[in-house]
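Ticket opened by: R.M.
Priority: normal
Category: complex prediction / small molecule

The reporter submitted a protein together with 2-aminohexanedioic acid and asked that the result be attached to this ticket for the collaborator who will pick it up next week. Submitted input follows.
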Amino acid sequence: MEFLKTLGIEGINPGTSTGRKHMESKETISSYTPTDGERIATVGVTSREQYDHVVEEAQKAFEIWKNTPAPERGEIVRQIGQKLREFKEPLGKLVTYEMGKIYQEGLGEVQEMIDICDFAVGQSRMMYGKTMHSERPQHRMYEQWHPLGIVGIISAFNFPVAVWSWNAMIAAVCGNVMIWKGSEKTPLCAVAIQKIVAKVLKENDLPEGIFNLVTGDHQVGEWMTEDERIPLISATGSIRMGKEVGKTVASRLGKTILELGGNNAIIISENADLEMAIRATVFGAVGTCGQRCTSTRRLIIHESVYDQVKERLMSIYENITIGDPLEEGTLVGPMIDQDAIDAMQNALKEIEKEGGKVIYGGEPLDEDGFYVRPALAEVENHYNIVQEETFAPILYLMRYKTTEEAIEMHNGVKQGLSSSMFTLNMREAERFLSVGGSDCGIANINIGTSGAEIGGAFGGEKETGGGRESGSDSWKAYMRRQTNTMNWGDSLPLAQGIDFDV
Ligand code: UN1
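Result attached by the on-call engineer:
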């Protein structure tokens, strides 16, 4: 595995960025490749002592970083983007090997990091505040944005590097320092990225404490969420995890950005370009083996095209290449681990129990690694299992008669991340995007639910958590807003015309 060497991955790897020799990790976690279940390497788990050391190093680094002009911070991010370009292929391979998504998607994930670096470089010169007209004479009012301090980033296995970069690159140009806890299922991706970032910092005589790494299970996550030294926690993962994180951080009045589960649907109208709709559906449902938070889980199909769509999907699913994700031509790689397969099998049973029908696939493949055949099932929207996000390639087929009914079904779940409608009818499309349409953070016409560009704000409503990351003005969540009023006159008029003579 040449790419492991290129990225500096060894048999045993430190999982803590600024861990000193005398603080070596006692515990380690192993990283396994889902492609054949073999162990790749081990990574040291961050101890409490190491954790505190990291926080202290981050605090020290903040003093330097916050006083570095924002465009200069952008220059460091530009250099990180440059290094990611250099290492795009080995990084893409590592993402594929450790997480299981196909190589095209592994490369796409690294590209997503490069894109957000470019975006953040521009943003570093555009953190604008407003000026207001004061109600008092000879007064000037304006607002400015300051960094928060340490930003804690907790990311998930399915996007082991890109989601960190959405947060870290934007937060960095804002002047924050980062502590990243990657997923314990993909620790090597985090180690590889940390090495790249540390190199750029070193080349620029900046402390590694600007970008920090910690490794471990939920214990390390709890230290972060409970830690008053970390004003903002940005967490990606399950709704169950997000509720815990939200509660803990709120109890100390900290800030959160939560990017949790989705239960994303595509509505295929009778006015759709069916070929386009079907291609988008397949990518959304089986891409990343159904393990994106934006994966297409529900397909709401107009009754007049239902049979046609169903048959077409069945025949595409029959011909989909499942196998080694590093191999060219593979469209579906493995799931992350046995637990994921078990959860999928359980969901398939639940579907039948509730009266639904699995009409295609679902079974694990009889080979090494965690391979499954993506499944199609006919269900009704109100089934308990349909209301949940099962992180697996199961696509639920449902039929509708009127647009109103389709939108009601569409919104009839607790999650609200991504959504889409396929139609060539302008009125129907606008209705889907209007206030009475999709209730999701992302709503598309004639493209699928997954594969968002970094330029937009990414996130969702309801149980998806309400956070926004990546593009648009998401940077504001990583800063504190300060309203300033400057009196340049020689008297002291009070606001609201209050008379207070002393
Ligand atoms: C995720 O699954 O957590 O829109 C993120 C997409 C990707 C990001 C997904 N750009 O599918």
